[in-house]
Amino acid sequence: MKLSGRRESTNYEDRRGKGGKVAGIGIGGGIVAVILALLLGGDPSEAIQQLGTQSVQTEEYVPSAQEEQFKTFALQILASTEDVWESKFKEIGRTYEPPKLILFHGAVQSACGNASSAMGPFYCSADKCVYLDLDFFNEMETSLGAKGDFACAYVIAHEVGHHVQNLLGTLGQAHSQMARQNETDKNQTSVRIELQADYYAGIWGHGEQKMFGSIEAGDFEEAINAAQKIGDDYLQKRARGTVSPESFTHGTSAQRMRWLKKGLQTGDIRGGDTWSGAYSSL
User: Fold this and answer.
1) What is the pLDDT of residue 41?
2) What is the DSSP string of 17-58?
3) Which of 37, 51, 144, 271 qualifies as a FRET site for 107, CA 20 to 30 Å off?
4) Which domain holds residue 114?
5) What CA–CA distance (Å, rounded) separates 192 from 274?
6) What is the pLDDT of residue 19?
7) In whole angstroms, what is the distance from residue 50 CA to residue 184 CA?
8) In a domain, 6, yes or no
9) Angstrom distance (rounded) from CA 74 to CA 152
């Protein structure tokens, strides 16, 4: 991506090194933790409550030069989402209220509960914030094989997509529905949520290119590859060699790539209906 000279959002809070509590996941670090995190869902409050918490001690944190570069990148992408979604909301007669980005390292406390960086980036609807440990960008390349700056941008845009769902009322309705559903139906509703957030990430990519022309050769392919690498079927097969479709919470690789591509191609906020059709048609 060509981002030189682009503005950085000021709508963020840097909590790196401030410590807190983390969700006690009971397994080791590395790819296993990341895979588990990605399968938990975009809004982590319920998963955190189930996992429980444990106190951790944090030392004085000094970010590396690379992490500071990641910070600049994240704030530039956040600024881009602000510009794109402000324009998209005007198209439908609405006013866009951007989410705040919370940067943390290791552990953080949100209005949805305490979280570990092993959970990956997440959106909390209770405080309308996107939470990001910048180390996740390294994990994407080294553990998941999702390389490239546009792949990292897709991750941020996906979480902002959940915020868009929240503003439009979709996320709240889905969560209310999930509270009344059995486990299988709840997981299917979660998949619908996540695929729509992928579509909205694609809308951002379409708008980014239209507004700024920053997309370079291979950028879209990086995002599509990332979507493939975080599909439930891909992650489950990699983690344990088998696949359990009834436990999917984000969608298969094919589904995630399809909805992201659709958003990238159309850029239409009125599209992306993952709700009205049969689950098998997603």
Assistant:
1) 42
2) T---EEE---S-STHHHHHHHHTT-SS-HHHHHHH-EEE---
3) 144
4) 12-281
5) 5
6) 59
7) 17
8) no
9) 8
Rounded average pLDDT per 10-residue block, the chain, 282 residues: 96 85 34 44 44 47 91 98 98 97 95 90 97 94 90 97 98 96 96 97 97 94 93 91 94 96 95 95 95
Q: What is the pLDDT of residue 59?
A: 58
Single out the residue of 13, 5, 151 nearest to residue 71, CA to CA: 13
Residue with tokens 């305490």, as numbered in its chain: 114
Give the model's pLDDT for residue 50: 40
In whole angstroms, what is the distance from residue 235 CA to residue 194 CA? Answer: 15
Supply 156's token pair. Answer: 């941020």
- What are the strands, taking DSSP E only, across the chain? 12-14, 21-23, 53-55, 100-104, 107-110, 113-116, 122-124, 129-133
Q: Which whole-number Å values give the CA distances from 67 to 6, 16, 100, 109, 271, in the listed order?
A: 18, 11, 19, 21, 36
Number of domains in the chain: 1
Residue 228 within a domain: yes
Amino acid in the structure at residue 115: A
Q: Is residue 199 in a domain?
A: yes
Backbone angles phi, psi at 197, to 5 degrees: -65, -35
Q: Which two tokens stand for residue 269?
A: 């906020």
The answer to the question of residue 5 being in a domain is no
Q: What is the pLDDT of residue 23?
A: 38
d(CA 122, CA 232) in angstroms, rounded, equals 17
Predicted local confidence at residue 24, as pLDDT: 31
pLDDT at 226: 93
Amino acid at 238: R
